[in-house]
Amino acid sequence: QVQLVESGGGSVQAGGSLRLSCVVSGVLYDSYCMGWFRQAPGKEREGVAAIDSDGSTTYADSVKGRFTVSRDNAKNTMYLELNNLKTEDTAMYYCQLSNNRGQGTQVTVSS
Asked: What is the rounded distance in angstroms from the CA atom of residue 77 to the CA atom of residue 57?
């Protein structure tokens, strides 16, 4: 059974930083593309970043240059570094592997 557990969210002021983690179990993690998406109340779900098994990455235009996705295959963990946060980054952040996702971690950015 695939399980994904996110952590690292919190409340920060605009311009601040956070580091999200996603620990994966129940699957051969290093052979999968993984990603982060977010959803704010009343808004559509937005793909934020993805990282393939070869380490190649893609980002939404809204976060390019501010967010960095990485993975540590030895730890079955994916990370999302969030820098220069803006109030519009406030959302629940989820990690995803295939059709599986975690419970999410809340990021709140105040002005």
From this structure: 15
Q: How far apart are CA 55 and CA 50, in angstroms?
A: 9
- Over the stretch 13-51, which tens digit does the pLDDT of each residue have? 999 999 999 999 988 777 889 999 999 999 999 999 999
Q: Are 96 and 77 in contact (CB under 8 A)?
A: no
The pair of three-digit structure tokens given for residue 2, joined into one six-digit string:
């695939």
Distance CA 68, CA 85 (A): 12
pLDDT number for residue 6: 97
Backbone angles phi, psi at 61, to 5 degrees: -60, -30
CA distance 8 to 70: 15
CB–CB of 38/92 below 8 Å?
yes
Gap between the Cα atoms of 78 and 105, Å rounded:
14
Q: Check: CB of residue 37 under 8 Å from CB of residue 53.
A: no
Q: What are phi and psi of 30, to 5 degrees?
A: -75, -5
